[in-house]
Model the fold of this input.
Amino acid sequence: MQTLIVNIKELIQIREKGIHMVSGSEMATLPMLKNAFLLLEDDVIVDFGEMKNCPTLSEAKIIDATGKVVLPTWCDSHTHLVYAGNRVQEFVDRINGLSYEEIAIRGGGILNSAQKLNATSEEEIYEQSKVRLEEVMKLGTGAIEIKSGYGLTVEGELKMLRAIKKLAENYPIKIKATFLGAHAFPKEYKENHSCYIDLIINEMLPKIAKENLADYIDAFLETGYFSVQETERIMEAGKKYSLQAKIHVNQFTAINGIAACVKHNALSVDHLEIVTDEDIEVLKNTQTMPVALPSCSYFISIPYTPARKMMEAGLPLALATDYNPGTTPSGNMNFVVATACIKMKMTPEEAINAATINGAYAMGISDTHGSITKGKKANIIITKPIHSFYQLPYEFGSNLIEEVFIEGYKI
Ligand code: NIG
Ligand code: FE
Done:
């Protein structure tokens, strides 16, 4: 079926084939057409251009986008959207003065979510998670990465990854699954880290690979969590099953983790609230995408990723939500884009590049997602009538989205 969108006020993020990410000063440019048309056929973008060249198609469904902006759907490359229950009590504890680290030391945090997850059935986890997935699709997310990491047991991790697989089977949105068994050390392994890493490598990974449940491997490389050496063991093991690394690193401390991730050819390094000059140096001229998660900084009051400094050094940057019950109970990519503009001083052009094409790169799908490109997936957002795309981050608390299409399906 053909869908022809006409009279588009601004058609944003139009790209030639073959552009997989944008870096440094290129991020300031967001290619667009004014008074444009866009033609979708089934699940693919087949044509776009200025209205004066708009084809006449008697069979096509016509959508009049007068006054409206059209852009590619968001690519959210870092989430923990599959989880059980919530951590609202920790939210209140933090308001009353405890820090995220203090809560974790008391056995809250990731271990709290792991306890809830292991006490919940796969069906129930799926039911809770699908509500969140449906919500973010309506908010314009058209591709998403989802991590395990709240199981921390063989059965718990498998349960999470199976729920992710089921979501991928039942919804049109592209889902990439990441195995995050190395999210925290369960209490019983607190004094015996290598034993838990053995469990990940010898028990979890082979089962996950056998059922083909993961695309990537992750670890929480951080003081008090997984050391550089421990994370290197995890990345090495992942390679044996062709699972490229996407690593949580530099959230609270800089301990030369980024260099280790680059050495192991990680697809992305995520969080980066604390970044040193050496970290920036090692990321230059590599294939590793830095990913910032500003709604995590917002929610737990930690520094924001130094985006300007990184882009000025020529690096690319992607933006993602980090949707999870502890540090970011929100999957709203428009809020992420707005917060990047407001708090990280990214321009709207830079933030939208970071949340679309660079987000697609950070989950290995930039040949099919992340821009308005002939041959890419028919993944688009149509806004309400607005004055320009700047209104999206400017009205940070409004939902200016009117319609979302994911792989040709109207959501
Ligand atoms: O990305 N930092 C590690 N993992 C998650 C938070 C996990 C949690 O608190 O549940 C994050 O922020
Ligand atoms: Fe995370």
In short: DSSP finds 15 helices and 16 strands in the chain. The mean pLDDT is 97. The two ends are 16 Å apart (CA to CA). The pocket of fe (iii) ion (ligand 2) is lined by residues 78, 80, 248, 322, 324 (CB under 6 Å).
